[in-house]
Design goal:
single chain, 338 residues, alpha/beta, Leucine Aminopeptidase, subunit E, domain 1, 2 domains, six-stranded mixed beta sheet, 14 helices, 6 strands, 50% helix, globular
Length: 338
């Protein structure tokens, strides 16, 4: 299920298939199209000649030849004419047809460039929205696991979608950083996380009823491992395992390891993926993180971005990862380097 935005050269990726933003002739061109043909060698052009072109919105598949990818999926994106000539429908078709080809050829990993967002003039944020929504829809409905990458060649060229949201998150992170600096100046030391801050507050005297509640809670949950707590939360939220791990940007193999091993120790980004999937509050997120030996830190930009999303009830993991990528932070979920 995982979907990740990454920076890199798509011609160097080691995955089952890479997607080429081709022209109708399929005989090579500029940009990523030319780069893929050069990297794959002349055999790719020879095979493409036998495909007799490709309609806009459609896709065709060839071998990868000298590339590290087994296959190249060639798709032809629409030229932007203002949006009134069916551009969005055609662009969505590019992603859907490419993913269907990857699925039919049993690909477990596929990498896309930003189709039509270059010389074809499709507005970047609209093109990104189409890519993310169409890929997510396919992965959610698919019975098989597939890891998909959206590859941005140059981070400077990345223009984050939802600019208003990005600006709000940026202001939030900066304000929290300033708050921490002022707090350190005033008090010398401060709790390093929301969880630690709560612990400091818990030194206050509580009444007998509250104390009893805490004692009951401790008895029932203190010995829970991360895996046990996660499975309990999935049941309490009324979710299926598949629904949960797909929304967490985690694949089935990893979830199986977590389910079968009560002592499994996940990466922090994996824990946060499940927190987003389960729509946990900040308190619940802190507790789940603590079970795995982690905490949200007000010194970590990525943690503050996650804190902003959860505090505002925004559990769209793809939107969250778009902002994290734009801010050069580690993405949420279980990332497999390519």
């Amino acid at each position: 299920m995982p979907l990740f935005i990454i920076q890199g050269d798509i011609t160097r990726l080691k995955c089952d298939a890479i997607v080429n933003a081709a022209n109708n002739s399929l005989l090579g061109g500029g940009g990523v199209d030319g780069a893929i043909h050069r990297a794959a060698g002349p055999e790719l052009l020879e095979e493409c000649r036998n495909l007799h072109g490709c309609d806009t919105g459609d896709a065709k598949i060839t071998k990868g030849y000298k590339l590290d990818a087994k296959y190249v999926i060639h798709t032809v994106g629409p030229i932007w004419h203002g949006g009134g000539r069916g551009e969005e429908k055609l662009l969505r078709s590019c992603y859907r047809k490419s993913l269907e080809l990857a699925y039919s050829h049993k690909c477990e990993s596929v990498a896309f460039p930003m189709i039509s967002a270059g010389v074809y003039g499709y507005p970047f944020e609209d093109a990104m929205n189409v890519a993310v929504t169409e890929i997510t829809k396919f992965l959610t409905e698919s019975e098989e696991d597939m890891t998909v990458y959206i590859v941005i060649f140059n981070r400077r060229d990345y223009k984050p979608d939802r600019n208003r949201l990005f600006d709000e998150v940026n202001r939030y992170v900066k304000s929290r950083m300033v708050f921490k600096e002022n707090r350190l100046l005033a008090f010398g030391n401060a709790p390093a996380s929301a969880a630690a801050a709560k612990c400091a507050c818990n030194d206050a005297v509580v009444n007998e009823e509250a104390a009893g509640s805490v004692e009951d809670y401790v008895k029932s949950h203190i010995d829970e491992s991360f895996s046990q707590m996660l499975l309990r939360l999935i049941d309490e939220k009324g979710m299926t395992d598949v629904e949960c791990y797909k929304k967490a940007n985690v694949d089935r193999k990893l979830f199986s390891k977590i389910r079968s091993n009560p002592s499994y120790h996940p990466r922090k980004t994996t824990v946060l993926g499940f927190a987003i999937a389960l729509k946990l509050t900040l308190d619940e997120t802190d507790e789940l993180l603590m079970k795995a030996g982690y905490a949200l830190s007000d010194s970590n930009c990525g943690d503050l971005v996650v804190e902003y999303f959860i505090s505002n009830g925004n559990y769209d993991i793809n939107e969250l990862n778009e902002v994290l990528f734009a801010m050069d932070q580690e993405l949420i979920g279980e990332y497999y380097p390519v």
